[in-house]
Protein backbone atom coordinates (compact mmCIF):
# COMPACT_ATOMS: atom_id res chain seq x y z
CA UNK A 1 0.00 0.00 0.00
CA UNK A 2 1.36 3.42 -0.99
CA UNK A 3 1.05 5.89 1.88
CA UNK A 4 2.34 8.95 0.09
CA UNK A 5 0.19 12.07 0.37
CA UNK A 6 1.29 13.51 -2.96
CA UNK A 7 1.42 12.23 -6.52
CA UNK A 8 5.04 11.63 -7.55
CA UNK A 9 6.16 12.29 -11.08
CA UNK A 10 9.39 10.68 -12.26
CA UNK A 11 11.68 13.13 -14.02
CA UNK A 12 15.35 13.15 -14.89
CA UNK A 13 16.44 16.76 -15.09
CA UNK A 14 19.76 18.48 -14.50
CA UNK A 15 19.79 20.79 -11.52
CA UNK A 16 21.96 22.41 -8.90
CA UNK A 17 21.93 22.51 -5.15
CA UNK A 18 22.91 25.83 -3.61
CA UNK A 19 24.30 25.58 -0.09
CA UNK A 20 24.17 28.27 2.59
CA UNK A 21 27.89 28.89 1.90
CA UNK A 22 27.03 29.87 -1.69
CA UNK A 23 28.60 26.72 -3.14
CA UNK A 24 26.64 25.17 -6.02
CA UNK A 25 26.76 21.45 -6.81
CA UNK A 26 25.37 19.61 -9.85
CA UNK A 27 22.59 17.08 -9.23
CA UNK A 28 19.88 15.23 -11.12
CA UNK A 29 16.30 15.87 -10.05
CA UNK A 30 14.82 12.38 -10.03
CA UNK A 31 11.23 12.85 -8.96
CA UNK A 32 8.98 15.68 -7.92
CA UNK A 33 5.78 15.86 -5.90
CA UNK A 34 3.62 18.46 -4.22
CA UNK A 35 5.51 17.84 -0.97
CA UNK A 36 9.12 17.60 -2.10
CA UNK A 37 11.57 16.04 -4.48
CA UNK A 38 14.43 13.59 -4.76
CA UNK A 39 17.84 14.33 -6.16
CA UNK A 40 20.67 12.03 -7.19
CA UNK A 41 24.33 12.92 -6.91
CA UNK A 42 27.73 11.30 -6.50
CA UNK A 43 29.27 10.32 -3.15
CA UNK A 44 31.47 13.41 -2.85
CA UNK A 45 28.63 15.85 -3.49
CA UNK A 46 26.36 13.91 -1.13
CA UNK A 47 28.97 14.31 1.61
CA UNK A 48 29.17 18.05 0.95
CA UNK A 49 25.37 18.49 0.92
CA UNK A 50 24.65 16.27 3.95
CA UNK A 51 27.90 15.51 5.84
CA UNK A 52 27.87 11.98 7.20
CA UNK A 53 24.45 11.41 5.64
CA UNK A 54 22.96 13.57 8.39
CA UNK A 55 19.79 15.64 7.88
CA UNK A 56 20.66 18.05 10.69
CA UNK A 57 23.38 20.69 10.85
CA UNK A 58 25.88 20.93 13.72
CA UNK A 59 23.34 22.98 15.72
CA UNK A 60 20.65 20.30 15.41
CA UNK A 61 18.57 22.23 12.85
CA UNK A 62 17.36 20.70 9.58
CA UNK A 63 19.77 21.32 6.73
CA UNK A 64 18.18 23.62 4.16
CA UNK A 65 19.33 24.02 0.57
CA UNK A 66 18.03 25.64 -2.59
CA UNK A 67 17.38 23.24 -5.46
CA UNK A 68 17.32 24.83 -8.91
CA UNK A 69 16.06 23.07 -12.03
CA UNK A 70 13.94 23.72 -15.08
CA UNK A 71 10.91 21.60 -15.91
CA UNK A 72 9.45 22.64 -19.25
CA UNK A 73 10.65 26.22 -19.84
CA UNK A 74 10.17 27.58 -16.32
CA UNK A 75 13.34 27.82 -14.16
CA UNK A 76 12.53 27.03 -10.53
CA UNK A 77 14.36 27.58 -7.26
CA UNK A 78 12.93 25.73 -4.28
CA UNK A 79 14.00 26.07 -0.66
CA UNK A 80 14.08 22.53 0.74
CA UNK A 81 14.95 20.60 3.89
CA UNK A 82 16.87 17.34 3.73
CA UNK A 83 14.72 14.43 4.91
CA UNK A 84 16.90 11.41 4.09
CA UNK A 85 20.09 10.33 2.38
CA UNK A 86 20.37 6.86 0.81
CA UNK A 87 23.25 5.18 -0.92
CA UNK A 88 22.08 3.68 -4.22
CA UNK A 89 25.40 2.29 -5.43
CA UNK A 90 29.12 2.75 -4.86
CA UNK A 91 29.10 6.35 -6.13
CA UNK A 92 25.42 7.26 -6.41
CA UNK A 93 23.27 8.72 -3.66
CA UNK A 94 19.62 9.73 -3.40
CA UNK A 95 18.68 12.68 -1.20
CA UNK A 96 15.03 13.20 -0.30
CA UNK A 97 13.89 16.74 0.35
CA UNK A 98 10.70 18.38 1.53
CA UNK A 99 9.77 21.96 0.71
CA UNK A 100 10.82 24.27 3.56
CA UNK A 101 7.82 26.49 2.81
CA UNK A 102 4.99 24.79 0.91
CA UNK A 103 3.60 28.24 0.03
CA UNK A 104 6.73 29.51 -1.75
CA UNK A 105 5.78 30.66 -5.22
CA UNK A 106 7.80 28.07 -7.14
CA UNK A 107 6.02 25.21 -5.31
CA UNK A 108 2.79 26.43 -6.88
CA UNK A 109 4.52 26.24 -10.28
CA UNK A 110 5.77 22.70 -9.53
CA UNK A 111 2.22 21.63 -8.73
CA UNK A 112 0.97 23.14 -12.01
CA UNK A 113 3.66 21.31 -13.98
CA UNK A 114 2.85 18.07 -12.12
CA UNK A 115 -0.83 18.34 -12.93
CA UNK A 116 -0.05 19.02 -16.61
CA UNK A 117 2.37 16.09 -16.74
CA UNK A 118 -0.04 13.70 -15.00
CA UNK A 119 -2.91 14.76 -17.26
CA UNK A 120 -1.02 14.12 -20.52
CA UNK A 121 -1.94 10.89 -22.23
CA UNK A 122 1.00 8.56 -22.67
CA UNK A 123 2.12 8.19 -26.24
CA UNK A 124 2.78 4.71 -27.62
CA UNK A 125 6.39 3.95 -28.62
UniProtKB/TrEMBL annotation:
GO molecular function: cyclic-di-GMP binding
InterPro entries membership: PilZ_domain (IPR009875)
Top-rank taxon: Bacteria
Domain PilZ: 2-105
Protein name (Swiss-Prot/TrEMBL): PilZ domain-containing protein
Species the sequence originates in: Methylomarinovum tepidoasis
Amino acid sequence: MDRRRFLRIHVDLPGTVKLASGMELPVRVFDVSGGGLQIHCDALDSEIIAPGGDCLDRHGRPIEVDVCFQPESQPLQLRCRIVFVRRLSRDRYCIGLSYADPLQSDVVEVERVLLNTAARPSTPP
